[in-house]
């Protein structure tokens, strides 16, 4: 009788230890995974990816001496997705923090397969991504990585893109690119790539012009809210306007 009680007591203690070990294993695994990739909200619609700061590259190994790699992205349950052969998010090595970093601005990012941007005032709770070694394809890649949602392990709690910008607000902007009544004025000079999107994210105009500080007719006929992206060799500027 005594032996049976002793055996039962030891067995219960062993079972409790197993449960505690399992719980610690789960907690350790979540922390372990999270430490590889950390996602932080920078501002409305803008998120920052930090990878490898814990010297853990289990999600994807860029290779010794690799200064950058690419991120293929999509938003689940929407049409927003990148073409595998045209990734436009680059993770770049930051020696100051010993990690790779990238910023994704969902206010202006063009998803290269669907040719769309995320509409204004849209909440994005979840994103998918794949790390890969080439901008126009891949010979090395990670598995699918899902940030946000009910199973998030990377700190992404969702973000909402900025609201629309009225014409009356342009006088308060520090940049020198303005749109009024479908006309673009910019102090940028030289060859400009100009892309116009409606607020459903559809690309409606794509122009390449030689600018010289003159007014440029964007050829936007329908009234509504739009996003314009203006690029030259000095960088890219994106603004929202009403027609």
Give an overview of the whole structure.
The model is unreliable at 2-10, 17-34 and 165-174 (pLDDT under 50). This protein has one helix spanning 2-36; strands spanning 37-43, 46-51, 68-74, 89-94, 99-105, 123-124, 126-134, 137-141, 145-148, 159-160, 177-180, 183-186, 189-198, 203-212, 216-217, 225-232, 235-242. The radius of gyration is 24 Å and the shape is globular. The strands form four sheets. Strands 1, 2, 3, 4, 5, 7, 8 and 9 form an eight-stranded antiparallel beta sheet that branches. A four-stranded antiparallel beta sheet has the order 14-13-16-17, with no helix packed on it. A three-stranded antiparallel beta sheet has the order 11-12-15, with no helix packed on it. The protein has two domains: 35-160, Immunoglobulin-like, CATH 2.60.40; 167-242, Immunoglobulin-like (Sandwich). With 243 residues, it is mainly beta. The relative contact order is 0.13.
